[in-house]
Amino acid sequence: MSAAVLHALWLVVLVGQAEEAGRLELRLDSQAMTVGEIVSADLVCTNTAAPGLPQVVLPEGLDLKLLSATPSTMSQMTWINGRSTRRVTHTFPLRIVASAPGDYVLGPISVQAGGQTYQTNPVRLVVTPRSTEPRGDRVMFAELQVTPRRLYVTQSYQATLMVGMRRVEIGGRVHPMNLIKLIDTSRSELSVFANGRATSSELRLPDSQGAVHEYEVFRVAQEVRAQQVGPLTVGPVFLRADYPTRLRFNIWGEREIVEARSVTASADAITIEVLGPPLEGRPDAFRGAIGSFNMTVAARPDRVEQGQPVTLSIAFTGGPLDGVGPPDLASNAELVSRFEFAQDELVGDLEGDARVFRRAIFPRQVGEQVIPPIAWAYFDPRREQYVSLRSDPIPITVEPASVLGPSIPRGSDLASGNAETGLTPLSGGISPNVVDAGRALVSQAPGFSTARLVELALAPPVVWLLTTFFVHRRRWMRADAGRMRRRRAYRVACRRLQAARNRRDPAQSVAQLREALAGYLTDRLNLPPGSVTPEDVRGLTAVRQLPAEVAGELAGFLEQLDLARYAPGTLTGPGVEESADRVAGWIERMERICK
Predict the structure, then answer these.
(1) Nearest Cα to 161, choosing from 264, 236, 100, 231?
(2) Which of 379, 405, 419, 431 to pair with 505, CA 20 to 30 A apart?
(3) Cα dist from 380 to 96, 165, 321, whole Å
(4) What's the mean per-residue pLDDT of the chain?
(5) Are 265 and 141 in contact (CB under 8 A)?
(6) Running DSSP on this structure, what letter comes out for residue 31?
(7) How many other β-carbons are positioned within 10 Å of the β-carbon of residue 54?
(8) Are 493 and 584 in contact (CB under 8 A)?
(9) Cβ(370)–Cβ(398) under 8 Å?
């Protein structure tokens, strides 16, 4: 085929291929909702460059949550009458919740892509008030309680969710069923109760007509620590369930749902006032600890030579200990004038019910010295006042540094020379380790028992066998790198989790949490090195036989961590401490699954 013909065919392909113009649209499941109800939506960018994060000004009473900072991408090519059309879409998943009834206008939502700005058309949303029927008239109801409503940062509040579901009544007969499994968690908003454990009890409630119905009541209690100063919102909670209206028995005698109707329940959000320690009256020794604490200061040893260190230990008991910082030793002028020590930040260790900080200090002078009092202060939220602690002075003795070893006693055999030992004392030099001539080996007759001789004879082959075993084991472990990764996955993840809890910057903590979970999955499942994405985790269902439910929940949690890391302004989720507990829970669960 000639070059001219090929060129002509290529022109035909170019002319026949078309691409739609770039656009942005918001696709909603519904434009009518009740207060607290969740409506799913997709923000779809068609034939645009890689889009940035969506931007929108929300009307008061309407909340929009971005579920993933990374859009899903799909490419499609269609052929109609010899003409091809190419379409590439980038889709952001969204959730919309209204906290008050009204007629809202959402949008326009804008997205930057390839230097251009795309906008959606405004969308009208109609929000109706939630049902005010008494509990006995509803198939499902929810109630939220939070105590206390006012607390200080780092303190914990207790949140309790109570959900009641009427037992399935069909044809005048109550059918026993696992009611909690009827709740569709993918279309529900559980706030801080997403990973809580429910306890159940029974309740009988009359309806407005006087009929009495049996309910199963589920209670979920969560203790959550306040991480930031300011108003803190718990909830709202919204639940959706598919309540059976028609059942049948299958060939195994089990009940199956043939028909169901959608029922909802919701509870209003509760706002907590989170306070910070007051500036008025704050002592210089305050390092941010809030709670109730005791301080113990000790120094070991209490007698040292000059140039040798004394270990200063400062232990705190009480709580919460994870908010305890060390005293500022560098600002203690008296301590600095008497002792030398490093000026870097102290790192505390949890030892039983105490957090202990240690620092090696070096006396500057010889003689009787005193470690001056150590000052430290905390804020007591119950008394709402600062409490200053001060240790007692600690006396120590500093002796001159030794240049030579022990002196030779006057009148001893070594001092005057001894024909039996053949040792002649010299002035200066190194002092002998043994000053009793009778203990020198030259003055003793050698002797070995039979058992000793057997031990000496067996020692070389035993040492050879042990050395051979460990050499072969090391080679085997190096050859099986995957086994080594799996063995160390749990230990490395726990170390990263602890580092995340100790971070003061929330963004760094979230990044460390994601590294702990993603790194654990990479090592424990022996995946290729690199960052694990939520899509990678969902794919583990087919590759690693991971249950689909577990893979989906893990992927969703990784997406939440990505949101907190890259788009903190769009995330309204749990704090660092709760997220760390969730990561620890996932790791423990994976340890059981992957045994």
Answers:
(1) 236
(2) 379
(3) 40, 42, 14
(4) 79
(5) yes
(6) S
(7) 22
(8) no
(9) no
